[in-house]
Amino acid sequence: MKSPSTAPPAVLLLSGGLDSTTVLAVAQHEGFAVHALTFRYGQRHATEIEAAKRIARNAGVVQHRVIDIDLTVFGGSALTASTPVPKDRDLSALSLEAKKIPVTYVPARNTIFLSYALALAEVAGAADIFIGVNALDYSGYPDCRPEYIRAFEEMANLATRAGVEGTTRLSIRTPLISLTKAAIIKLGTSLGVDYSATTSCYDPGENGNACGRCDACQLRLKGFSEAGLPDPIEYATPRKRPRARRMAR
Predict the structure, then answer these.
(1) d(CA 173, CA 208)
(2) Is the pLDDT of residue 241 over 50?
């Protein structure tokens, strides 16, 4: 890994969740000096902000900025309004429902976040922006798809001084986009990620414990199970265990 003084800068969106923390480890493993951005946007799962602070501090990023924006003024999501967060959904049906955007989708969230990252990239002289979107084990959000990322990258290179002058080609880096949750966890584990510091829950309790029942918790638990590894975080409800198969008589 390059020393901080010689490492190329990169901007990374850090939510405090499993995916973005894995991406942070990937970016640093590739030798980037990471400038991390976290957003307090009115989300009910604000415990992720404290998680992001811990993760950024432990990873030794160049800088970590927590930016306040208020997406509750628009509403339209169970994460920014009083709409109940769906619980106990059948994960096997999520892929079939991909065209039906869930109520946990926050309108234009990734576009807003990436726009901030783009501004910081221009100031920091970074050619790479990292984001932990995933198009396999996810809840069907439109701004997690490869075609969206390609479109934003094209726009970014039309909208920046470096892009117009031809001095830098900006790249939106999505190292997890084609990985299953289990593969992401295995990758992060191989890079030394401490997943006990992360949080993924859409609707944590007052003590910050994950509910274990929302889509994000279920996908996380499924990922750890398929990776053959224990999930190190605490859950408010007992985790579901597979039923033992009955022996044929």
Answers:
(1) 30
(2) no
Give the CATH number, domain containing residue 160: 3.40.50.620
Q: How far is CA 86 from CA 11, 92, 97, 139, 199, in A?
A: 32, 15, 14, 11, 18
Residue 192 is encoded by which pair of tokens?
Answer: 């030394």
How many CB atoms lie under 10 A from the CB of residue 198? Answer: 25
CA distance 90 to 94: 7
Task: Please write the tens of the pLDDT for every residue from 107-136.
Answer: 999 999 999 999 999 999 999 999 999 987
Q: Is 148 inside a domain boundary? A: yes
Check: CB of residue 29 under 8 Å from CB of residue 1.
yes
Q: Structure tokens of 85? A: 């967060």
Residue 1 lies in a domain: no
SS3 236: coil
Contact between 51 and 197 (Cβ < 8 Å): yes
Report the share of the chain in percent with pLDDT over 70: 89
Domain presence at residue 190: yes
Q: What is the pTM of this model?
A: 0.90
Six-digit token string for 93? 């049906």
Answer yes or no: is 232 within a domain: no
**Domain range enclosing 21:** 9-227
Burial of 36 (0-12, 13-18, 19+ CB in 10 A): buried
What total number of domains does the chain contain? Answer: 1
